């Protein structure tokens, strides 16, 4: 835009009605840097006044923003934001604006009638100007990608709405007892509402690993809810030992963000669950965790009766390195799709036999069902230890004793 065109457009804007310096300058925001819109508008108004000294250029009132960019109005919105943030820990924030229909319409009329091509939207300037005031007053920084708090200015309702981003904690958990699931398990009959079948708890199981951790974390972070994301899951009747299973705990809408994670680690019931390696992470790591396929090592107790030790060792040797075709086990068909998976047994060996029971150890690829690897699940898992031994074998007790590192999260 040449100088004469710029001034002609500015004159047309001024003739259209009273307009503040911020709204005038914003119509040319894309043409220069290093100036605020208020400074651009003041400069344009001054040049036009100098070239038309007989023209009255009203400076009070603005039909575009309706006075929104007056300094006391900006300060008032900044105070509203401060009040909304009271009691909430945050180091970063981002401001967004929901403009009223009238303000949107005013802006569209101006652009259409005056042929505006280089404007910045009203809400972009408002976000920036109030953001600067909030940053100065609260000592917090603007963050465009993952702010701690998203602040929405609802102009039509004259209020501030907050969206507090979740806090994510990575670590490993050990499940030290049998009989509890990894995550909350709503009652299938009432779907969590509470009924006679679930003793009006809404749950099939009294507690879970998720609750044993989350119920300690929630008051520490002053959050609204929590969710545990695990790298796979162990059976309800299996323990998770060794280094533990990698997980990420998501705390939703936390008012406190900088909690000492040692307090969380010490606060869980150590007779049931233990935590290690806790550290803060970000939400993008959840997908990395969920899509990971680490190797897993299991220890299983199986009833073998008077089965010969040498024969059992031979069968386990045959199982080592085998590729297993497994259809979805019958015991989980009611909640998982029926399909065939191919997984490898990396190694299998005997630890010992005593009183008719054998203790075996198996290292496998992720996703291999160990109980069915032993039993064969009526031919749905092939080969199996039972088919190799030509014996009816089953797992009496199962422990996960190692889950491999998660690439992209753990070093």
Could you tell me the mean pLDDT? Answer: 92
Number of helices: 12
Radius of gyration: 33 Å
SS-based class? alpha+beta
Summarize the helix and strand pattern as letters: HHHHEHHEEEEHEEHEHEHEEEHEHE
Described by strand count, sense and barrel closure, the largest sheet is:
10 strands, mixed
> Uncertain regions: pLDDT < 50 for 5+ in a row?
none
From the spread of the alpha carbons, the general shape counts as: elongated
User: How big a fraction of the residues is strand?
Assistant: 25-35%
Task: Provide the CATH top-level class of the largest domain.
Answer: Alpha Beta
Indicate how many domains the architecture comprises. Answer: 3
Tally of extended strands? 14
Query: Helical residue percent?
Result: 25-40%
According to CATH, the fold-level topology of the largest domain is: THUMP fold
CATH architecture grouping of the largest domain: 2-Layer Sandwich
Report the CATH superfamily of the largest domain: THUMP superfamily
N/C terminus separation: 55 Å
Could you describe the 3D structure shown?
It is a single chain. The protein is α+β, with helices and mostly antiparallel strands. The strands form two sheets. Strands 5, 6, 7, 8, 9, 10, 11, 12, 13 and 14 form a ten-stranded mixed β-sheet that branches. It has a four-stranded mixed β-sheet with strand order 2-1-3-4. 32% of the residues lie in helices and 26% in strands. The model has no long low-confidence stretch (mean pLDDT 92).
